Records
---
Amino acid sequence: AHAFETLLLERHDAVALVRLNRPKALNALSLELTTELSQALDALERHPDIAVVVLTGSEKAFAAGADIKSIKDCGFMDVYDSDLISSTWERLTTCRKPSIAAVAGYALGGGCEIAMMCDFILAADTARFGQPEITIGTLPGAGGTQRLTRYVGKSKAMEMVLTGRMIDAVEAERIGLVSRVIPAAELEAEALATAKKIASFSRPIVMMAKEAVHRAYETTLAEGVRFERRLFHASFATQDQKEGMAAFAEKRPPQFKNR
Ligand code: CAA
């Protein structure tokens, strides 16, 4: 296993728990942290026994955003040349294995954006989401104006981006930013249980299902439905579809082989 400075990795059977770990800076997303996150995802993606990734932070903060202190003196060429967001942060968006963000405390700016790059967000009742960039003289730079708008619609996204107002977990669930709110003390166990549930299914089929849902954001309805139909047909070429449906007919649990 790899040793990271800003992440803690735990393995729970087929689930990898990746914990952002810069407690003194509320997990602000330094270059080191986002680089390590993308390296960790490379390794987890390759790892044959890992099926699902859970990304979490601390009780106080999932992540309080980009590391303001390390970028405050950057010029245009510094940020343009390095293009850090596409080269490191966005590794989450190319991960074929499912990813779940388990958010407690602050998920602000880049923290909210990283959570939105995961496949879905489970929130502790202590979670706070916001895009406060406007309050420090900039705007979201890792998808906050785009992904948030798709999650919650124009009115909410516009208000959050233009005012920097933070929303709590209840509002986040009501507007569809998070899939569920969980008591803080149970967040990690519930996220792991959810991940293990997904990991119990056929991995290639899970990847197809994830790919199909993502396609909804990239194409027209007609094209998306056609894409889905092709994958649905393709699932009938897998052993796991045979096993899953045979098990149903025989009233027994399926034994998926990831084939
Ligand atoms: N970058 C760097 N350091 C940060 C940080 C950040 N985003 N957020 C918090 N910290 C540091 C604080 O500076 C502080 O360090 P010191 O103890 O050395 O002073 C430490 O973490 C604890 O923070 P606070 O004392 O501020 O804790 P608090 O409980 O009083 O407040 C908070 C918590 C409301 C989250 C507050 O820290 C805050 O507003 N943070 C900044 C949030 C923000 O503006 N994020 C957007 C960043 S820009 C961005 O993300 C761009 C993008 O889209 C790519």
---
Amino acid sequence: MGKVYEATVTAPVNIAVIKYWGKRDSALILPTNSSLSVTLSQDHLSTRTTIRASPDFTIDRLWLNGVEEDINASKRLVNSITTARKLREALEEKQKQDGIPAESVVPLSQWKIHVCSENNFPTAAGLASSASGYAALVSALGTLYELPQTTSELSRVARVGSGSACRSMFGGFVAWQAGIADDGHDSLAVQVADRQHWPELQALILVASDKKKAVSSTAGMQTTVETSSLFAERVRTVVPQRMEAMKEAIAKRDFETFAEITMRDSNQFHAVCLDTYPPISYMNDTSRAVAGLVHAFNSARGRTAAAYTYDAGPNAVIYALKSDMRDLVELFTYCFPREDSILPDAFYPDPFSIFDSPEQ
Ligand code: ADP
Ligand code: DP6
Ligand code: CO
């Protein structure tokens, strides 16, 4: 057995408060609109990925949650791995040009890899597994290959795996700038504020179903772009204005504005799904009951004290300030006693940490 190089990383999920839904280029995963999300603590939901590279490996292989997947059957896996390899190849070239003896430049770009990835939460159930999954894959490749690119630059590589993954490359509050270029070089994630900026903000995840969704995000958004007339209006007028208002609310730590925009954007995203033909319904009766309860809670408090948001699935993410969260947890546990709930009790200052262990 020859040399084996190895890297292990974990990556967090992110939950959008301004939703990405729609592609202008499906191959490069370029979105029709910018989006903005909050990265959750890795203590509760995360992907852990280990990658090994060796001159002895004959093919690239990947195991997801213990089951081997065919890498070549997934254009997204091939695209993200190939893009990272090209960056490594450029680095090896540079090392040689810089006078490092050729025999000291490790030709990792030429070696096949074995990837082992585990999600510690339901996969493909609307809890952003594609986001943490591809962010972990690309971070692990970045670590293994010792890539010099910035996190925003690497977010472009995560983006070609799954759009939402580019935002999981950062902790805190993250925008994915749609960009305008056809080659996608300006379609990347930037951090709007780090986690310490707003430590009182917390997220509660209510799992209404951990089943795999009937319509994947990729397929759903493609049908929406092709058939919904409401969607065009959302992209043209609503989202650009909400992006600005949301950034301002975050900068000012204005929870009421943050919460109202979050709920309105989730509602519009699901309205656009219903306007798709044939219609797509990701929310179920439990999701709708949770939304109703949040509005009732807000009325009782006389202020917008909590916000719900739903991705492409029935599971709710509730945002609230720490001072209101205990009451909300009690309320949800009382009203939905049989629901399985996961409570991230706090965000951490560094929600995205890398455990780097390349071995020779
Ligand atoms: P979700 O709401 O969970 O993001 P999607 O439909 O967007 O659901 O994506 C689910 C798909 O993402 C999975 O079927 C799988 O192809 C991919 N995926 C999920 N987790 C990982 C992972 N850890 N590594 C690689 N790909 C993953
Ligand atoms: C509703 O990133 O999963 O969660 O780019 O096709 O992989 P692909 O889709 P994905 O879509 C996420 C949609 C969403 C909203 C969001 O995360 O912004
Ligand atoms: Co996804």
---
Amino acid sequence: TQYIYRFGGGVSDGGKGDKNLLGGKGANLAEMASIGLPVPPGFTISTAMCTRYYDEGQAFPASVRDEVANGLRHVEGITGKVFGDPANPLLVSVRSGARVSMPGMMDTVLNLGLNDATVEGLAAISADPRFAWDSYRRFIQMYADVVLELDHGRFEEALEIAKEDQGFYLDTELSADDLRKLVAEYKALVQELWGKPFPQDVHDQLWGAVGAVFGSWQSERAKVYRRLNDIPGDWGTAVNVQAMVFGNMGETSATGVAFTRDPSTGENGYYGEFLINAQGEDVVAGIRTPQYLTKAAREAAGAKPASMEEAMPQVYGELARTFDLLERHYRDMQDIEFTVEQAKLWMLQTRSGKRTAKAALKIAVDMAEEGLITEEEAVLRVEPSALDQLLHPTLDPDAPRDVLTKGLPASPGAASGKVVFDADTAERAAANGEAVILVRVETSPEDIHGMHAAKGILTARGGMTSHAAVVARGMGRPCVSGAGTLSIVAKDKIMRCGDREIREGDILTIDGATGQVMVGAVATIQPELAGDFGTLMVWADKVRRLRVRTNAETPDDCRTAREFGAEGIGLCRTEHMFFEASRITSVRQMILAENEAGRRAALDKLLPEQRSDFAEIFEVMVGLPCTIRLLDPPLHEFLPHEEAEFEDVATATGIDIEKLKRRAAELHEFNPMLGHRGCRLGVTYPEIYEMQARAIFMAACDVAEKSGEAPVPEVMIPLVATRRELELMKLVVDKAAGEVFAERGRTIEYLVGTMIELPRAALKAGEIAEQAEFFSFGTNDLTQTTLGVSRDDAARFLSVYVEKGIYARDPFVSIDVEGVGELIALAAERGRATRPDIKLGICGEHGGDPASIAFCEQVGLDYVSASPYRVPIARLAAAQAAL
Ligand code: ADP
Ligand code: MG
Ligand code: MG
């Protein structure tokens, strides 16, 4: 096997299609080199090597050493420099790069190849020796941190002291001599903390760094990141070894990061930051305040330091042309890293840029309208679940706000919550159901779990491309970064802003769209559904096959769902209507009645209430199919508990209270979810379903009379296991329908069907379909009954199950395709065999989960049903599944 892939100097052993092998960074470096962009030469050690490294007990096979030597010769040949040669030393960077970008991974090591001899050589051949010593001190510091894992605070301290001694503020003020002294101190620190001298052999340096990159694949941070992002552990990472170019060679040198479009808003314009006379991550580390890329951005921000467009117009021009070229080449918005060495531009990275949901939407629609991609590609470009961010409220611009301070609008959306100052507290509070805002001076990969747990993130330092900003945008968390007026003392759990104090637990609101930070909670408004969102939805609707309905039981929910594009109701649960205060006494009266007459008396009181419930819903959904599920929950759930509740029932019925209590005790169940519920209620007390069916058909007639258009009721019998159960219940429903239609002198089309939520029902679907005109897969219960796991009790162990890979995802969130999915596929097939035109749908939480929707498309269901806010997500996911 070949483990090394070269790039640069007219050679590209790989390309953008090789991400699995070369990692994203390596594949794109090779691609950029192959399309003629200026990329410093280098080579990529493939992910296959990482896998092998772990297979062989973290050792390198001998053949790889030869391959690496060849790779180095390739770089030496192009640059004319020699690795480890004091006369003309080649320096390299060692960069990790997995298939997908992973902020939890090892940091890059720059300037590798410097030692006490080569630094002198480099200084001798450079116009300004300062740059050689700056590079060496950076190298030792980075190597000590990421490879040797020594306490980097000590190195920073030494640097601070070196500056303070001279009364300096910036690193750039240190002279060559100052830096030479600092290097000596750094080497002493390495000796002290590591017990050995800093490695002088450049090959030891290289293998140390390569080993550290592979080692970082199994670091805790990386594991957490993989878990949160569903990244398999066996992918491995690649390592890129690349000739250094120097942004720290003086005033005509610089380093920067850019997006080809605004990653927050999606606005079509270059967006980025750069720093003159700087290297690597100086821009994102917040050491100096970076300068804007474009003149327009600088002016808009009212900032003084020249933009790159103004300071280096020629290089900027070349950079801008490169942005356009890369966007056209990759047909997507790019996130780019570059360095300018003495007025020469070098490209160091490109990848599809992370973006907010809003930006994803705008960029997809814009690019389709620009003709860069097709409408169908645009539909595929937006992550359905990311729409969630856009469908939720933002701050009401007219609501009063008590503005504390303003930072940078780093990630949009608004959030309110209690202030916490560290990630662990954030995680704990969130686990208790509290909304928290994580406040940090700046964030680092160690904070990721807290950022995930928080509703929003606020930092005092860092720009638009800081760690906090990038990670928050990726997670869809609102973030305000670089709120410089905040003085945060995390250990005392307090922050100050002017003369105001905010303590842990105080409520703050952040607005990631404006950067405002407010004391207290601020009112919100509903999102805008027209514009780009509307356009994309139209494109999605053109390609999707699956219909999308909603789970709704109130007229309000129905209206919201229709605005979001629901095409009917997939599940209207009737029990919620029974819990209402005005009705619960009648419900209890019905349950506790001793005989049918007593039950009927109570049901007579409930009938008009149900009838008006249904009429209101039918009015909103007129012309659309409405699946109404007859009473499902265990009677147990409706039983009175408090003395006063028993008294209410006693008064209503005239039955002795002690007798009622005895009856309630009789109805107690040990395992109500497998007890007297679903169609078992209808089988034992048919009058309940009879009343509900009458109410449905009366309401349907009411609406038909009033509006001239009839609704399409689909009466659904829950928890059926056998054909006979459904047959009995269908008789009840059909009889009620016949009676109502005779009374009203009109007929309304309706269907009777069942939920498939028990394994037996799935297996016997062929027989059940003789009675059922539709199946709706009730995947919440079907998951519980198939896995034998109670959803309400699963929290205690399910996360461990997912962690240990027993289930790939939480099966209550995303369908267990292998198990539950097989039952669904089988039931669909057997149902269709009996009744070819049987309607098939899915209700339950899974109906709004994109992965589950893809599965529904695969088995050819007719529709999915999701809660109102997830309807657009389902529409988009259904479209993507069809493409
Ligand atoms: P990350 O994955 O964290 O972005 P990178 O490998 O991209 O890490 O390295 C971070 C930064 O280091 C780059 O943006 C670039 O500024 C600098 N860098 C990396 N390799 C080189 C190089 N060969 N020459 C100059 N700078 C480099
Ligand atoms: Mg990094
Ligand atoms: Mg990078």
